[in-house]
């Protein structure tokens, strides 16, 4: 007989079990959150992955999100001192009749890590490990890291990947219902200021003012350009 001291006597447990059974019938599954681990610098990510490798969780699926400056292996783009992001986009769009061979080999990297995981040989890795493997397989480490995020339990990245909404959108990062860990979180204020700050020289301001003068004098979107001209004038 049900006892009088616990919930089973009131039928609450039965209702709970019925609710669970209903969820199971509907195919509902418990969503397991990802852990987003944010650090101030890429060097700190190297230190943390090194420590992760020493733990019992070394084989947990993971990935590291970083910029093309650290992960691009294209010989022309990676050696360039100009904007690597723009050069990469141009290659992907094939604007000059050229495409990126390494981008088309992204699946080689992601499949390799899946194979390693299936044989329980996968260990925590660093950006340099992924780049080295990318060169070996002739596969883009930048986009492979993004693909690995889909099946990763832990995602390591710099602060700005979590703080900047534009970066979150471009990297398809959704933090709703996820676990966010910020290493040395007292640096967050500085990182937040940097993500919404931009530096310009006085020459750039004067050049912008001259262009805006030209726009206003020629009645080109005058209502939009006049306030901008006023800002440039006040700053100079």
TrEMBL record:
The keyword ATP-binding applies. GO terms for biological process: double-strand break repair involved in meiotic recombination; nucleotide-excision repair. Residues 1-27 are annotated as: Disordered. Residues 1-232 form the Helicase ATP-binding domain. It comes from the Eukaryota. One of its GO terms (molecular function) is DNA binding. It comes from Nothocercus nigrocapillus. Keywords: ATP-binding, Hydrolase, Nucleotide-binding. This is FANCJ protein. The lineage of its organism: Eukaryota, Metazoa, Chordata, Craniata, Vertebrata. One of its GO terms (cellular component) is nucleus. The gene is Brip1. Residues 12-27 have a biased composition (Basic and acidic residues). InterPro entries: DinG/Rad3-like, Helic_SF1/SF2_ATP-bd_DinG/Rad3, Helicase-like_DEXD_c2, P-loop_NTPase, RAD3-like_helicase_DEAD. The keyword Nucleotide-binding applies.
């Amino acid at each position: 007989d049900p006892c009088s001291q616990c919930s089973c006597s009131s039928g609450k447990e039965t209702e709970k079990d019925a609710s669970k059974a209903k969820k199971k019938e509907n195919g509902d599954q418990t969503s397991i959150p990802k852990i987003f681990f944010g650090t101030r610098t890429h060097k700190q990510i190297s230190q943390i992955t090194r420590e992760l490798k020493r733990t019992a969780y070394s084989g947990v699926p993971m990935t590291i999100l970083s910029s093309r400056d650290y992960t691009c292996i294209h010989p022309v783009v990676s050696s360039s001192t100009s904007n690597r992001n723009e050069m990469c986009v141009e290659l992907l769009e094939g604007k000059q009749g050229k495409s990126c061979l390494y981008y088309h080999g992204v699946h080689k990297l992601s499949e390799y890590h899946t194979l390693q995981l299936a044989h329980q040989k996968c260990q925590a890795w660093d950006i340099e490990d992924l780049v080295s493997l990318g060169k070996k397989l002739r596969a883009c480490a930048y986009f492979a890291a993004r693909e690995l995020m889909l099946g990763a339990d832990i995602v390591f990245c710099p602060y700005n990947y979590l703080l900047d909404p534009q970066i979150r959108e471009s990297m398809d990062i959704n933090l709703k219902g996820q676990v966010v860990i910020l290493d040395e979180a007292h640096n967050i204020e500085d990182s937040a200021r940097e993500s919404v700050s931009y530096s310009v020289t006085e020459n750039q301001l004067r050049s912008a003012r001259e262009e805006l003068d030209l726009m206003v004098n020629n009645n080109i979107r005058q209502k939009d350009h006049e306030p901008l001209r006023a800002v440039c004038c006040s700053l100079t």
